[in-house]
């Protein structure tokens, strides 16, 4: 249960009604709906051509799912309950999301800080941040079926926008939301929320809380839930790889020509390109161990892969036009751009049967644009009509693909497919192993420079021949060198319950002794020796060893008259020590007395005969 909240569209409708009294939005009362199924997803780097229907489909297929119950009175502005019924797919799940910008607008209204446009269609509230002045706006729909729009800008840049698209009318017209789309351009994400209205209450099965993987706490008493008669425990694994500050460089030499020294062309340029990269990946998941059949299974896995490439360059120019002496010069590089790319993708497996792909590109952009007049004047006499310029365009692109060949364990166990199970050996100390993530990573990165240089002098001009300088920074496999992760499944602990008949007549000694004498527990598989030490004049009559499936039931008990006995702790066990008084003949003494008396009578009668 996520708790009680107010739906975004409810506030939007109520606030707009109060602000725009008499406006078209308030003409129709919202249709009363008792239940709605709400899908919410966060979509990172959505496709540029993705339509609203495309985004809604992702939310339905991969987002979290909530059931919203409207109040019986149908008041659209009253609190509603929301029940989480599905967490959704890793990387997309976004439960509990709601848009509350209109609440801030409402507070601004109460404080008298709102401004309305001349036509009353747009309400705005200004605010201040460290980054600069900001403004929040709410624009009423510009027609029936059009969305209600919210936007926020800081220092002239759009911080976020939200569009509340109404659902299709049901009966009379309705202002119910259909799809709520929030765009955060600075982060490259969209948050999409889809409302699906129900004609009846959802089933009890649907309202059941979602199953959360990995909820079992390793090492807990009993080691977890029972499955096929065995105790099952789960342990997490986490693998991390980070290539930070990896750099490559390339010297184009003098082009055209490709020589170490300038010459052979009126205009030449030499560029030294540099690319730095951070590549990182995080993979996590769990493994489950079924103790009874000693089977280890690869459970749920997920992770992310991120690339971050940046490029810079330095350049020199050469002029050898024959009119003046040749000279070379540094080309001022004042970057007014961010020649940088980054992309991140998430996945919901260990990638043993699949792969993940990331890619990004800057596109061609101007990185240097310099007027050569000042440079030329520093080397040439003042000639009327002198002009020139240098520009360098550049484009950086990169991509990466990763899959996993296997997850190998230090005991020789290897997993090569999702959900695979392997038999392992579990000792008294439990099961421990070191897991290694064996990835197969292939990356590509290309930086292309497009230099242009020209000089105009009187009625002459020189243009650097058009050419591209492509540089394949990387193309092929790279070892990410993931960190290892430990698996530690503690032993299953079984309790040993000792009870006694006439308990003051003796003492039971346990070997090996338990950690807690008042509550004996042993790892499964331990053999425990029980020794009877009676006090003077007493002795052990027998042990009562109960069947672990029928604890305390004397119909399922084994008697052992030996002074010592052994117990295999393969389950919770219960043993009773029965003490008796006597010299060791115990309960047979009364019977012996009777037999002696009887034999005496028989002997006396024989003598009389």
Number of helices: 5
Low-confidence stretches: 1-31, 72-79, 211-230, 381-385, 583-609
Helix content: under 10%
Strand content: over 45%
The coarse silhouette is elongated
Reported for the largest beta sheet, the result is: 11 strands, antiparallel
Characterize the quaternary organization of these chains: single chain
Distance between the termini: 98 Å
Which structural category do the helix and sheet elements fall into? mainly beta
What is the count of β-strands?
34
Round the mean pLDDT to the nearest integer and report it.
Answer: 78
| Major β-sheet strand ordering | 1-4-3-2-11-10-9-8-7-6-5
Radius of gyration: 40 Å
Topology:
Layout: E1 3-5, H1 8-19, E2 35-44, H2 52-62, E3 64-69, E4 80-86, H3 101-110, E5 114-116, E6 122-129, E7 132-139, E8 148-154, E9 157-166, E10 177-184, E11 189-198, E12 226-227, E13 230-255, E14 267-290, E15 295-319, E16 327-331, E17 340-347, E18 355-361, E19 365-371, H4 373-377, E20 387-409, E21 414-415, E22 421-423, E23 431-457, E24 460-463, E25 469-477, E26 485-489, E27 493-501, E28 506-511, E29 521-523, E30 527-534, E31 538-546, E32 557-560, E33 564-568, E34 573-581, H5 589-608
Parallel strand pairs: 27-34
Antiparallel strand pairs: 1-4, 2-3, 2-11, 3-4, 5-6, 6-7, 7-8, 8-9, 9-10, 10-11, 12-13, 13-14, 14-15, 15-16, 15-17, 15-22, 18-20, 19-20, 20-21, 20-23, 23-24, 23-25, 23-26, 27-29, 28-30, 30-33, 31-32, 31-34
Helix pairs in contact: 1-3
